[in-house]
Amino acid sequence: MTIHKGRGFACINYPIGMNLGGDPSQALVHSNPDGKFTVALSAIDLGQGMKSVTRQIAAETLGVPVEDVYVDTADSDTGPHDMGSFASRGTHRVGNAVIRAAEEARGVMLEAAAEELEVDAGDLVTDGRGNIHVRGAPSRSITTMAASQAAQFKQGRTIAGRGIFLIPLSEVDPETGEMTPVSCFAHAGLVVDLTVDDETGEVEVLQINSAYEVGRALNPRLVEQQLIGGAWMGLSHALWETTEPYYPNRDHGPVDFVNYLMPGPGEVTPHNIAVLERPAEDAPFGGKGPGEMCANPVLPAVANALYNAVGVRFDELPITPEKILRGLRANGGARPQAVRQG
Amino acid sequence: MIEFRKDLFADERDDTLNEVGKPTRRQDILGHVTGRSPYFDDHLFDGLLHMRAVRSPHHHARIRRIDTAEAERMPGVVRVLTGKDVPQNLNTLLSLLDFGIDDEPLLSTDKVAYRGEPVACVIAATELQARDAVAKVRVDYEELPAVFDVEEALKPGAPTVNPVYPKNAFVYHGRYDHQKLRFGDVDAALAQADHVVEGRYQMSPIEQAPMETCGAIAAPEQNDRYVCYTSTQALFFSLGTAAKMLKMGSNRLHFIGGTVGGGFGGKVDSLHEPMAILGASLTGRPCKFAWDREEEMQVGAPRGAERWYLTDGVMNDGRIVARKFTGYFDSGAYTRLSSYAIIKGVGHLPGPYTIPNVHADVYCVFTNRTPATAMRGFGITGVDFAIEAHMDKVAEVVGMNPIDLRILNAYRDGDMKAHRRLAKNTALIECCQVAAQKAGWSIAPSSQAAASMKDGGGARAALPAHTVTDQKGLVEGFDSGSYAKKAGASAPPSPSSAQPNRPTPTPTPGQAAPAPAQARPAPQTAASSPDQPRNKPNRFSSLSGFRRR
Within this chain, do residues B194 and B318 fall inside the same structural domain, yes or no? Predict the structure, then answer.
């Protein structure tokens, strides 16, 4: 028995939003009389943080503290139309719709404040802490609460806004495939270090070093969670998971988590992440969706590391111990490749 | 360990924002960690009925007869549904986007094309009673030959899986049995390359594996409406699908969801909502239709299998001059979303590299297995595995550090991509550099000096002087909807793709311009006229204490 060390690299880009566009999202924003805001969406929070990221976007745009905003999602009677939470479209499409709705509501709030302060609304700014004041003259100020109360009870204004974001549908040329698939891309590069036991075919992933470019980390904690979870899923896809272990043969399909295997807590790999932020011009504050793309580079990086370790190309996923042992046998045993630094 | 490299692209970013960029705690976290967040299945109703599907044990079979008489007499059984109970028993999800032909029944009546396909649905007072009655539904099947391999399925004489597409391939733009990508002259470039590198890559189906299995609870509301609590990832997609299949105005449906126990793509094309609402409308009582884990894993649509063949032409210095793909997406028995994923995948080729000659033929193939659907990275994950495993082989052939090979060929701002649009906002090179640095994997000085904003565009922005096109895979007699299709001969050909001998697409009658992509159900019929007596107001309140999420 020998344990062979290997190192592999892969890099990817990933299209953000539904391919070809044509996938609108809407948002509604309104204020209570005391200047507390509700964002109504029909977008879904799958656990990825839809509510949280749109809450921060709305607060930033309105110019109020994040505690003054709550997001209500997914009631078809109150939330306006949205295509759904898939295709890395949530942050990009819904985020943009929320910006537009919040801008409209902010405009009314500033007009109400301007009337109270007897100034021009164009001269007003928000401090993000619940105050509206004249640019360059912080003493001439009114709270967002007072402005909202005046709007509701004195001026008869609705502090509310509607927003939609739509990238019009692109056509596809049947002859050449010419198309406008998406408006921005996320990126990643990733190095996997692992060992292979040539007697059992078992793989242990030692560490991952990665760089993910996400446009802007709208919430760094949520980004970190996505990247760590996504890399875990990528490893699981590479080495563990399938519903048809002998594809295209339909036999031996797992029906529960006893037979459908995924890495457990003990197999979570140490992961050193660098986040790069190159804002996309049409994305909300530049943010691209990190959720889908983060799994993708792990699969080929693992296959490339396995080749580096034992000199066998594994071109069929998942690369189970059975496939590794069969590959080693066909190869006449392990043939480790050049050691890569690190 | 995570670090934020604020030094990179700093001049393209305003880092003085108040709320954006802060690690604010999630709005819903307290509910999640205390177990109080209500999911669809937390909404309990008085008199809730349970639905279980009768499923095909065969991969492919004709249905001779379905006998529900004994099942209907079983204890607790309220009703047994079959295909004739479904108002519009044929659908394809993307019909809401005007893409593709209705090809999948909610409850099959004539034949089954995968193991697990539903042919009837028992509604009973308890789940156990529903399960017991399912075993008593007698279905006479005549087994048919089945096909499981994508390339076998495309051969002449293969059994027809999906009668809407008799040759087992989705029809693109009403014209071809695959989606084409043509950029430059790949065969000429391969002939001139110093090396040709070939590969074949296969990804097997993968389960999305959410903790919460798919499901929905529907109940009659007063005023002739239905409320539906659902685990869907796409509220208005599901609402539109239900409105279409039940021939019901969309505003008679009140969908509530939004807190979901994991989706990963498996809850985009769910059919639980129309089934549960159908049950509620035919029994007048709340109905729940949800999968158990076995159904989630073997009947629920997985990430589909993909097979890719790649051929690269590479020069001794590592420049890739040609890349050719043949791809097969295993869609299973019905279309679901695979047809869409292929267009997405084709728009992604040849990966994040600037390659002057690219060619792809990608097929959406029907086989006798569980229909495939979306999953994290849909349309991209499989081909990215192929491309990046292939890059390693190319690096070995030319004797280069694989990271240097990537940076040498990386796309940069201003480069022309194979789908004929210019690249912008790229950052592949920086990701390669930072990952290499973190791992202590040294790269060449030229790679270290490269940048996404440098050396792109110019000659690299040019379209190929000549693009080879062909009519391979031409299909007659299809008008597969107008989504993403050029409006035939009236559309001016783009200068880039104009060829003197390029065939002009024949406009087919009935092909409209792309419709606005609003989830809009097809014909809506009012189920009750105003002068009919109202249904007895039947209000079922949620016993869990949460009216809503």
Answer: yes
Contact B216, B289 (CB under 8 A): yes
Does the beta-carbon distance from B378 to A187 stay under 8 Å?
no
Looking at the structure, tell me whether residues B127 and B176 fall in a common domain.
Answer: no
> Can A3-16+183-330 and A25-165 be said to share one CATH topology?
yes
Question: What does chain B come to in residues?
Answer: 549
Domain boundaries, position B254: 215-298
Of A273, A274, A281, the CB nearest to B425: A281
Distance from CA of A201 to the nearest CA of B (A): 19
Q: How far apart are CA B8 and CA A233, in angstroms?
A: 28
Contacts B148 to A, Cβ<8 Å: 248-250
With respect to CATH, is domain A3-16+183-330 assigned 2.60.370.10?
A: no
| CB atoms inside a 10 Å sphere around CB B39 | 17
- Please tell me the distance from the alpha carbon of residue B379 to that of residue B446, in angstroms, as a whole number: 33
**Chain A 156-215, residues with CB within 8 Å of chain B CB atoms:** 169-182, 184-185, 187-191, 193, 209-213
**Looking at residue A342, what is its pLDDT?**
63
A-chain residues near B264 (CB < 8 A): 46, 233
Q: Cβ separation of B26 and A51 shorter than 8 Å?
A: yes
Residue B271 lies in a domain: yes
User: A214-272 pLDDT, tens per residue?
Assistant: 999 999 999 999 999 999 999 999 999 999 999 999 999 999 999 999 998 888 899 99
- In this predicted complex, what is the ipTM? 0.97
Tens-place pLDDT, residues A129-167: 999 999 999 999 999 999 999 999 999 999 999 999 999
Distance CA B121, CA B84 (A): 12
Phi, psi of B105 (to 5 degrees): -75, 155
Choose the closest CB to B172 out of A83, A174, A317: A174
**Among A82, A165, A171, CA closest to B483:** A171
**Hey, are the CB atoms on B203 and A317 less than 8 Å from each other?**
yes
